[in-house]
Design brief:
The complex is a heterodimer of chains A (254) and B (292).
Chain A: E1 4-15, E2 18-29, E3 33-37, H1 44-51, E4 59-64, E5 67-68, E6 71-74, E7 77-80, H2 83-91, E8 93-96, H3 108-118, H4 124-137, H5 153-165, E9 171-175, H6 183-198, E10 202-206, H7 210-216, E11 219-224, E12 227-232, H8 234-239, H9 244-253
Helix pairs in contact in A: 3-4, 3-5, 4-5, 5-6
Chain B: H1 17-39, H2 45-52, H3 55-87, H4 91-106, H5 109-117, H6 119-122, E1 125-135, E2 138-145, H7 152-177, H8 181-189, H9 194-224, H10 237-248, H11 251-280
Antiparallel strand pairs in B: 1-2
Helix pairs in contact in B: 2-11, 3-4, 3-7, 3-9, 3-10, 4-7, 5-7, 7-9, 8-9, 9-11, 10-11
The chains are: A alpha/beta (254), B mainly alpha (292).
Chain lengths: 254, 292
């Protein structure tokens, strides 16, 4: 087992001529909670999406749990993985989206067990038991049969977290999980994320919730214009930013 | 709560004199036409009544229905297949789908039906396997003989469904495109394969958008079956009524008979479509399943 859960070395990513990531290097230890912050367009969401290969990187090396993502290295050469192999890698990496992306034609329980049934091919009855447990864990035991359209944003996002957890990931990626929520619903989602962090889950969270970062994160990374500007312990960076760009950003959001 | 006092506005409602005049004119013209038609000998209502429920007509109406159902069934399956192929990451599948749609949407269905009818004169047999490699009379492959006896009904079904599949593919494609791309990303992040994502996540959601225009296509297909005479299949409603009138030298009442049956079927289909659309238009919100 690798001590490092995520290891990114000089990641570059462009959309056409627009270079979004200009050499990102960072590491996340097993059990660590890292918050990625920065102005919109800084590339933090793109970087997150590269980690589970939803976006393809142009150069650099990206490893999760010691395994190269999206490629296999053989005699110093990279070979693209088959779609089935790339899918298998994603099973171990949970992702929570800003807009929840729940499956609207399935109720809460069926959303949670979709991966168990269609990827892990677990018997539906057994999967349902597991799904009920997970929905209980995120406080939605009474909403099993509700369709996403009949749930509040906060409830939908909690279902989405439970759906990711069902695959028993070793790493969870959160892409602005509370940005689409009404202010009064942010707390219930953050609470679930806090208890998940307390359970020892490795997490990378792209967020604007500085309170959460201060309270829960082990490390904080400030990104701007495709580069890591500053990183370290959240308390320190938030209280005493060293870089001008960080100071500027924090003065606007704090 | 106290009832608010009702205050009604007292005003002379806006008059629509021209509407009334036009409606009156149309109604009178309609009545005049009906009265005239009921006496006009060319319509021969007696013959109309005699042939409307003629066993041959009823049987041919059944053939038209069978053609419609069979052709739409295959068109729907092929349409989904080609639409999904068009969206697949595989460039070969994409190109095959594009080519199919290009050819079958770009040529008239009547011409296509004539072609399918002539298939057995173009190709006497179809052989799938390794040619020239045989041991006595055992070939390595499968051999289909295309004789003149190959069922004209099924040739018509093939011709109609291949043409319709090109249209269905475009309808399904629009449905697939309407599903938010976040759905595919969420499925991918769970580790679902591309095909599972299509099968369990994207296609079920696309159905809501696909079904209403598909109803239209069924109605359209019912009428298009009258072209199977190009194959030439002559057991459908239109060909049969024309056959009968060829003997009686009295075409008009039989045309009316055919139209009546087509209208009867399309009316039923329109009613069905109304309820389907109502069902699928219920907000985007599915009803909460009853808790057990």
């Amino acid at each position: 087992m690798s001590e490092l859960m995520v290891e990114a070395i000089d990641i570059h990513k462009s959309f056409g001529s627009n270079e979004v990531l200009k050499g990102i290097s960072l590491t996340v230890k097993r059990g660590e909670v890292m918050c990625l912050v920065g102005p919109s367009g800084s590339g933090k969401s793109t970087f997150l999406r590269c980690i589970n290969h939803l976006e393809r990187i142009n150069s650099g090396r990206l490893k999760v749990d010691g395994t190269l993502i999206g490629y296999r290295e053989h005699n110093g050469k990279l070979h693209e993985l088959k779609p089935s192999e790339a899918s298998a890698q994603r099973v171990g990496i949970g992702m929570v989206f800003q807009k929840f992306n729940l499956f609207p034609h399935l109720n809460a329980l069926d959303n949670v067990i979709a991966g168990l049934v269609h990827v892990k091919k677990i018997d539906k009855k057994i999967a349902e038991k597991e799904g009920i447990e997970l929905l209980t864990r995120v406080g939605l035991a009474d909403k099993l049969e509700h369709f996403p359209a009949h749930l509040s944003g906060g409830q939908q996002q909690r279902v989405a977290i439970a759906r990711s957890l069902a695959m028993q990931p070793k790493l969870m990626l959160f892409d602005e999980p509370t940005s689409a929520l009404d202010p009064e619903l942010v707390g219930e989602v953050l609470d679930v994320m806090k208890s998940l962090a307390a359970s020892g889950m490795t997490m990378i969270v792209v967020t604007h919730e500085m309170g959460f970062a201060r309270e829960v994160a082990d490390s904080l990374v400030f990104m701007d214009a495709g580069v890591v500007v500053e990183s370290g312990a959240p308390q320190e960076i938030l209280a005493n930013p060293q870089q001008e760009r960080t100071k500027n950003f924090l003065s606007k959001v704090l | 709560m106290p009832q608010p006092k009702k205050v009604s506005i007292e005003a002379v409602p806006l008059r629509h004199p021209y509407r009334v005049a036009v409606a009156l004119f149309l109604a009178l013209s309609g009545i005049a036409f009906v009265i005239d038609a009921s006496h006009r000998s060319a319509y021969d209502w007696k013959a109309f009544g005699k042939y409307l429920f003629d066993p041959r007509v009823i049987k041919s109406a059944g053939v038209t229905l069978e053609l419609t159902i069979a052709a739409m069934f295959f068109a729907f399956i092929l349409g989904i297949t080609f639409a999904v192929m068009r969206r697949s990451p595989n460039p070969i599948l994409q190109s095959v789908s594009w080519l199919f749609i290009w050819i079958f949407r770009g040529t008239p269905v009547y011409v296509q039906l004539v072609f399918w009818g002539l298939l057995s004169t173009i190709y006497h047999s179809i052989f799938i396997g390794i040619p020239d490699l045989h041991y006595h009379h055992f070939y390595l492959g499968v051999h289909f003989a295309l004789s003149q006896n190959t069922s004209l009904f099924w040739i018509a079904v093939i011709g109609l469904s291949l043409n319709e599949a090109a249209y269905m593919a475009e309808i399904v494609r629009a449905g697939l495109l309407a599903v938010d791309s976040g759905q595919e990303e969420a499925a991918a992040s769970l580790g679902m394969s591309w095909w599972s994502t299509m099968r369990y996540i994207v296609i079920p959601q696309a159905m809501r958008i696909i079904i209403p225009p598909s109803g239209n296509e069924i109605i359209s297909m019912l009428k298009t079956t009258s072209l199977v005479t190009a194959v030439p299949l002559v057991t459908d409603l239109y060909a049969r009524t024309r056959d009968i009138s060829d003997e009686t030298y009295n075409p008009i009442p039989l045309l009316l008979v055919a139209c009546t049956w087509y209208l009867f079927f399309t009316t039923i289909l329109m009613i069905g479509q109304y309820f389907l659309e109502k069902r699928f238009a219920r907000g985007h919100r599915p009803m909460i399943a009853m808790s057990s």
